[in-house]
Design a protein that fits this description.
The chain is α+β, with helices and mostly antiparallel strands and 356 residues long. The protein is 23% helix and 34% strand. The chain has nine helices and 20 strands. The strands form four sheets. Strands 6-7-8-3-9-10 form a six-stranded mixed beta sheet, sandwiched between helices. Strands 13-12-11-14-20 form a five-stranded antiparallel beta sheet. Strand 1 and strand 2 (17-26) form a beta hairpin. The structure holds adenosine-5'-diphosphate and magnesium ion.
Length: 356
């Protein structure tokens, strides 16, 4: 099924504008992830799509057909809630089968579906248990299973992995992706965790304060953040952002200057915020075409196969990733980056500057 939001807004009766003029298409079989900090309108968006919240203005379409007035049941959407809403007096099996009878399935068909999904989510041994005897993570898997057995044409998932511990979360990520690849149901998932969004999404939708900031594949959003918010939010460690100005194809930060790629938009004099990712900065290597900077190294931490080095460039914080085998010491050092690695943003509205 193809899901479309056209100029969708939500203003709660309290006057709170939770979602503002949202435009989004999720194509048949696509897994799109809405990502943004707490309170940015992710849950509200899912609830409007499921029919649990009214849409203040704009249109919701499934395969081109307007759904604004349709009841949740008519929309036929499966939703996994952030806190698993299981029926306490039913077993795991009965929770997962719940609602299948309404779909007109025979008992044998229901049984086959429940057991198939239980196997995919490793719930076979829990089928006779009551929800109250399960851990939070197990309950969340049952909630996921219940949504999956319905084989709905649209799957909505609100932070489905947030109640799991780190190891199980990784495992479930890949389980959900496996299942999605086997049977690609149109899916809109929500998370506040950018790493989870990057790992799972066919396309990301970055949100802030009720507004979409950027839509794209994880690789596009990582490589070309549309604004300062996305630049700082997507990617870990976060992109370095430095105040400076540009003039005649040079970037000035404090008393140091660095070459920029040759582009008309980057010759005009103006104030900028310059962004460079930690992994693009090298310690102690000298390629004549590169920008070279003197930085002060203050501290570093071992991340495993890399070290995250904390320094300052002209008094502004700068972090870089270096191989764990490379010696690091405090004090002044030279670092370099390829001029193409620089992102430039407007310091006033935060938008990425167009090199053209
Ligand atoms: P998220 O899921 O991204 O954390 P929500 O969609 O839950 O964000 O909330 C978005 C905004 O709408 C927040 O400012 C929140 O306080 C507000 N909000 C959510 N639900 C209601 C409600 N029922 N009534 C009034 N305001 C609400
Ligand atoms: Mg939420």
């Amino acid at each position: 099924m193809k899901l479309q939001l056209q100029n969708v807004s939500k203003i709660y009766p309290s006057g709170n504008q939770a979602v503002c003029d949202m435009n989004l298409t999720v194509n048949e079989g696509e897994l799109v992830v809405l990502v943004g900090p707490s309170g940015c309108g992710k849950t509200t968006t899912l609830r409007m799509i499921a029919g649990l919240e009214t849409i203040t203005s704009g249109e919701l379409r499934f395969d081109g057909r307007r759904q604004n007035e349709a009841s949740p049941r008519q929309r036929g959407v499966a939703m996994v809630f952030q806190t698993p809403a299981l029926i306490p007096y039913l077993s795991v099996y009965e929770n997962m089968a719940y609602g299948l009878r309404r779909q007109g399935l025979s008992l044998a068909q229901m049984d086959e579906r429940v057991r198939q999904v239980a196997q995919q989510l490793e719930l076979q041994d829990l089928l006779e248990r009551r929800p109250s005897t399960l851990s939070g993570g197990q309950q969340q898997r049952v909630a996921l299973g219940r949504a999956m057995t319905r084989k709905a044409r649209l799957m909505l998932m609100d932070e489905p992995l947030s109640s799991l511990d780190a190891a199980l979360r990784d495992q479930m990520r890949h389980r959900i992706l496996d299942i999605h690849h086997q049977t690609p149901t149109t899916t809109l998932m929500v998370t506040h965790d950018q790493a989870e969004a990057m790992a799972m999404a066919d396309r990301l939708v970055v949100m802030k304060e009720g507004r979409i900031q950027q839509v794209g594949t994880p690789a596009q959003v990582y490589a070309h953040p549309a604004n300062l918010f996305t630049a700082g939010f997507i990617g870990s460690p976060a992109m370095n952002l430095l105040q400076g100005d540009i003039e005649g194809g040079w970037l000035n930060i404090g008393a140091q200057r660095f070459p920029l790629p040759d582009a008309p938009g980057w010759r005009r004099a103006r104030k900028v915020v310059a962004g460079v990712r930690c992994e693009q900065i090298r310690l102690d290597t000298k390629n004549p075409r590169d920008a070279q900077a003197r930085i002060q190294i203050r501290s570093w931490e071992l991340l495993g196969w890399q070290q995250l080095v904390y320094g300052t460039l002209e008094g502004q914080p700068l972090r870089l990733l270096v191989p764990f085998s490379q010696p690091v010491s405090p004090g002044e050092r030279l670092v370099s980056w390829n001029p193409d690695a620089i992102h430039l943003f407007d310091p006033l509205d935060g938008s990425a500057l167009d090199p053209e």
